[in-house]
C-alpha cells in the first residue's frame, strides 16, 4: 500500500511539473517565495464568523442543558470551528508582482496570471481589480476586506502595467 502511494505521489508531482513547464512557470516559483514584490493582507471576516459559530454552538449546548454536551463529537465540532477560524486568520492573502506575472492564492490554491493574459488593471479608492482576458474571474484586493495597502499596491501595479503595456484605469 505504501509503495503504490509513493508511486502515485511521484506521478502527480511529475504531472504538475509538466503543467508548470507548459505554462512557463519555473518550478518552485509559485506562492510567497520567488522574485518580485509581495503585498500581504489580513483575512479577518471569515475567521471571525467561524469562531462565532463555534462559540454559538457551545453556548447553545450550555443553554439547552441536554446530555449531548458531554458528547465527544459535540466538542470536536466546536474545536474544529475554532481551529479553522484560527488557521484562516494565520494564512495571509497576498499579491506578488513579478517581472511578467502576478501571483496570488484563491480558494486555497496558488494562482498565476501572466502579463499577456491581463486585459486591464482598475485602481480605485481602497481597492485594486485585475481583469483577465476571456472569461476568467476578476482578482479584487480591497483595503476594507483584507487590509491590503492599496495605495502602494496601485503604484507598483501602475509600473507593472507600464512595463508590460497593460491598460491601467483610475476610478
Q: What does this molecule look like?
A:
By secondary structure, the protein is of the alpha+beta class. Helices cover 47% and strands 24% of the residues. The protein is built from five helices and eight strands; from the N terminus they run αβααββββββααβ. The protein has helices at residues 2-23, 45-64, 72-90, 143-146, 150-164; strands spanning 37-40, 94-97, 101-106, 109-114, 118-124, 127-132, 139-142, 167-170. The strands form two sheets. A four-stranded antiparallel beta sheet has the order 1-2-3-4, with helices on one face. A hairpin with a 3-residue loop joins strand 2 and strand 3 (101-106). Helix 2 runs antiparallel to helix 3 (72-90). The model has no long low-confidence stretch (mean pLDDT 85).
Quick synopsis:
The chain is α+β, with helices and mostly antiparallel strands and 171 residues long. 47% of the residues lie in helices and 24% in strands. It contains five helices and eight strands, in the order αβααββββββααβ.
Give the termini distance in whole angstroms: 58 Å
Helix content: 40-55%
Uncertain ranges: none
Largest sheet: 4 strands, antiparallel
**Helix/strand order, N-terminal first:** HEHHEEEEEEHHE
Mean pLDDT: 85
Which geometry do the CA atoms define? flat
C-alpha Rg, in Å?
Answer: 21 Å
Structural class: alpha+beta
How many H/I helical runs?
5
Strand content: 15-25%
Give the neighbour order of strands across the main sheet.
1-2-3-4
Number of strands: 8
Amino acid at each position: 500500500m505504501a509503495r503504490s502511494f509513493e508511486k502515485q505521489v511521484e506521478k502527480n508531482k511529475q504531472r504538475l511539473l509538466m503543467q508548470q513547464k507548459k505554462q512557463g512557470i519555473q518550478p518552485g516559483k509559485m506562492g510567497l517565495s520567488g522574485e518580485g514584490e509581495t503585498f500581504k493582507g489580513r483575512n479577518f471576516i471569515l475567521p471571525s464568523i467561524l469562531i462565532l459559530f463555534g462559540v454559538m454552538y457551545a453556548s447553545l449546548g450550555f443553554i439547552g442543558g441536554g446530555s449531548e454536551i458531554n458528547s465527544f463529537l459535540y466538542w470536536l465540532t466546536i474545536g474544529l470551528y475554532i481551529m479553522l477560524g484560527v488557521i484562516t486568520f494565520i494564512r495571509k492573502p497576498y499579491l506578488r508582482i513579478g517581472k511578467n506575472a502576478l501571483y496570488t492564492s484563491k480558494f486555497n490554491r496558488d494562482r498565476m496570471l501572466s502579463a499577456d493574459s491581463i486585459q486591464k488593471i482598475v485602481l480605485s479608492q481602497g481597492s485594486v481589480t485585475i481583469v483577465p482576458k476571456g472569461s476568467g474571474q476578476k482578482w479584487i484586493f480591497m483595503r476594507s476586506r483584507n487590509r491590503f495597502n492599496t495605495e502602494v499596491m496601485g503604484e507598483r501595479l501602475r509600473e507593472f502595467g507600464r512595463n508590460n503595456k497593460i491598460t491601467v484605469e483610475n476610478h
